[in-house]
Design brief:
single chain; alpha/beta; five-stranded parallel beta sheet; four-stranded parallel beta sheet; 9 strands
């Protein structure tokens, strides 16, 4: 049985894992191992300012995956995919590693080619947006740069870790919609939202609601979670993490997947943190 390891800095990639457990999922039978690479409860990868420090920490994470003997590692996280691109210039993992960036870009470009005048607003973490990867790649694939807009949404991924339908999440997305109104051309009547963070897909309904309130029309969401990873039929699921869930995240995610992917829901309900999953150098901890 093929072993697919899905890695994310947090639990956003669970949306990708769930694809393999949908009724009618086709492909080779697979065991899905979810590896939460969030390093400490006080600091995630986006809070590490030095790029080389980010790379060194992710190298530690990749080496900690080796005992699980994955056939492939799917990096569900946009931030980690960007860090991995830099790291792989001088480091080779013990197993194949695939990031989400290229498949996501290809699908977005395909959607945009069919609607040549609709603007695209890219939404992601600060690391992802600061990298400029998505605009650069979309332009290379023939998308007019005048159609592409980018907006970082700091903190939203962490908020979604604690719960989806919370006032904090709604407020953050509402503020984002207001910022988008100032950023996009006046009179925008149609809009694509590119969700360039795997966590953001959990809030699809909230994105639609808050942007509809500001723009008086329902945006079209482009969610790479629905495209990445190829085909496989999930038969087993395991979740591992160095840190516990944030807030009500364990209960929220257990309920979220109870109907669509009970294998994931059952595993999350009993999941416990393993502080020894990988070692985080002391320099990465916030000093209290």
């Amino acid at each position: 049985m093929k072993r697919i390891l899905i890695c994310d800095s947090g639990i956003g990639g669970l949306n990708i894992a769930a694809r393999f457990f949908r009724p009618g999922a086709t492909g080779e039978d697979a065991e899905i191992l979810y590896f939460n690479a969030y390093p400490t409860v006080n600091k995630g990868f986006n809070a590490i300012g030095n790029p080389r420090d980010q790379e060194n920490l992710f190298r530690i994470v990749l080496e900690a995956m080796t005992p699980f003997s994955p056939d492939v590692c799917l990096i569900a996280c946009n931030t980690l995919s960007i860090i991995a691109q830099r790291l792989m210039r001088y480091y080779k993992a013990a197993f194949p590693v695939q990031g989400i960036l290229d498949p996501a870009t290809e699908k977005m470009a395909s959607a945009l080619r069919g609607n040549e005048t609709i603007p695209l607003l890219l939404l992601g973490t600060k690391t992802t947006m600061d990298s400029g990867f998505y605009p650069q790649q979309l332009i290379r694939q023939g998308v007019d740069k005048s159609r592409i807009f980018s907006l970082a949404v700091p903190g939203l991924a962490t908020q979604l870790e604690s719960g989806i339908d919370t006032p904090e999440v709604a407020k953050t997305i509402a503020v984002c919609a207001g910022q988008a109104k100032e950023l996009l051309p006046p009179g925008t009547e149609k809009l694509y939202l590119g969700l360039c963070c795997t966590h953001f897909g959990f809030a699809s309904r909230i994105w639609e609601r808050e942007f509809s309130a500001v723009f008086k029309m329902k945006p079209t969401l482009l969610d790479p979670d629905q495209w990445f990873g190829g085909n496989a039929a999930g038969k087993k699921f395991q979740y591992v993490s160095r840190i516990p869930f944030f807030g009500d995240g364990q209960k929220t995610m257990t309920q979220f997947f109870s109907g669509s992917a009970p294998e994931i829901s059952n595993a999350l309900a009993t999941a416990q943190a393993d502080p020894g999953l990988f070692q985080v150098p002391e320099k990465f901890f916030d000093k209290q």
